[in-house]
Amino acid sequence: MTPARRPRVRRTRRSPSGQARSLVVAAVVAGLALAPAAAALGAPPHVPPARVPPDHRLILGASRVDVLLGGRLVGRVERPPGVVEISWLVGRVPADWVAGAGDGTVRLKGELSLGRGAALEVGPRTSRLELVGGADPRASSGISVQGGNLQLLGTTVASVDPRTGRPVPAGQPGRPWLSAGAGGRVDLRDSRVTGLGDGTTGARSAGLFLGPGATGSVLRSTFAGNGIGLALAQTQAVSLSGVTVTGSATDGLLLRGDAGTTLASVTSTDNGRDGVVILGGDGRRIGGLRTERNQRFGVRAARLRDLALTGLRSVDDAEGALLLVGCRSCVLDDPGVQGGRVGLRIGAASGPVRVTGGVVRGAAFGVQLAPTAGQVTLTGLTVNGATRVGVEIGGSGAALHGVQVSQAGVGVRVYGQAAGALLDQVTVTGGRDGIVATDGTRGLTVTGPTVTGVSGTGLRLASTGLTVRSGTVRDAAVGAALPGAGHVAGLRISGVARGIWVGERGRITAQGVDVLATRTGIEVDRGGTFDLSSSRVVAARALVGEIDRHGANTIALPPFPWFGLAALVAVLLAFGLEAVHRFRAGRSGPPRAPDHVLNVT
Known about the structure:
Elements (H helix, E strand, L loop, with lengths): L15 H25 L15 E5 L3 E6 L2 E7 L5 E2 L12 E3 L4 E4 L2 E4 L4 E4 L5 E5 L9 E4 L3 E5 L2 E5 L16 E4 L4 E5 L2 E3 L11 E5 L4 E5 L2 E3 L3 E6 L4 E9 L6 E4 L5 E8 L6 E4 L5 E3 L1 E4 L4 E9 L2 E3 L2 E3 L4 E9 L1 E4 L2 E3 L3 E5 L6 E4 L2 E3 L3 E5 L6 E4 L2 E3 L4 E5 L5 E3 L2 E3 L3 E5 L7 E3 L2 E3 L3 E5 L7 E3 L2 E3 L4 E5 L4 E4 L2 E11 L2 E5 L2 E11 L4 E5 L2 E11 L4 E5 L2 E3 L2 E4 L2 E4 L3 E3 L5 H26 L14
């Protein structure tokens, strides 16, 4: 087939009014065309401004390439069947639209649209594709896939400002893009996309935007320095594996209303907002996410049902590793979190939510359950080094099973109007206070807690309708502070200065408690009451205040330290004998040698 001649572009004069009318019509048409994509991202149609279409446009069809200038057809080139490599366009369309260099670089100036039946390949022959852009949106470039197929194979796609030769800065209205819509497919293998997308909404927002009805795959590829790194909005069966998203101006990976997406080994780092955003969808199964140093949350998920998120790893995401809002019947398994303000935050209208296993280290708040969160269950989670609170519960119906907190400001805090919380076999080691429930909480049940080595209070529980069953508090300033009303059974307290304190409004019944304290055993303020039965209290001042005793109680002073006394007596006796010896030696003078001993000096 003989090469097609380069199309000649006819130039016609227009009146100023005609040009203005053309620009208005083009802007309106562009706005209508992009409205579905913007709606897919959830932005109101009136928020983004109408897009100005590029002056240059190439349409790759099943059998030809149409050349359009300012919306007018100015040329047509027949193309070979099958997949077209982008370098084939060099020399067949206007030279300043698609230009090639000998080093495997191709530069595109304008929009290249793939229609139904068209297939375009970039790489590996083309090692770098440069898309021209800048401040003027009419001079921007991009590839739009509408019914066709785009393949990026072992190549780099980057923006370039022809005036500077450098990438187009973020925020420029004419920043290039890659996008696909209904019926379009995009596949990336071992490729890199950088410097694309304006970070707003719609088809030009991301390094790669896959819109409603699009599909494709991304394997071992990187998105760096884009507006949004990678966006999927109402897509179908997209596969992401070995994907890295980094340095985006806004969010790293955006999933919104997509169906059938599979993710494996996806990393999102150093993005301007959230690392991964998941909005909407049922039955998602996501594993292998890793987020680092994002300016907000590592993962933000909302309006989900039946989510299973496994093996999330987060390091130093500023606001936290995970924010769940409106998540119904969701499971988070084996999260690993290091640093950030909040390790895991379960927000409004979420529940039931289950968190199983995992470790949160070095966050200010290990786990936060919001006041409007629904039923949340934490099982086998470990929180270490939370500077403020290990686990903070503001919602009702929360349950903790086998949770371990160490070296936190407060181990577990129940606050606000939280009701019906269950703390089962919770362990708190070190830090300031062990388990705290503030005034206003109701129906708290604590079974088998273990609190050791805190500098303040082991249990500070002001909840109404409190129940404490068994458990141990050891090595604290105060064992248990109980200003509210409730029942305590089988609690063992030792190594404390003050065993149990009851406030002036306290109404506590205790059965089978064991208190060993150095100062006061049980102390009840004026106005409070304490009913004690079948218990043992050993302290210098065992009972202080109004305490009713029933059944067999043992009230005693601390055991006398006989071994210590014996040691003290032995030391004193030794000093006494030494003093007597020195006294007697002083009266008799210095020792003298016998008279028959002559070798003396």
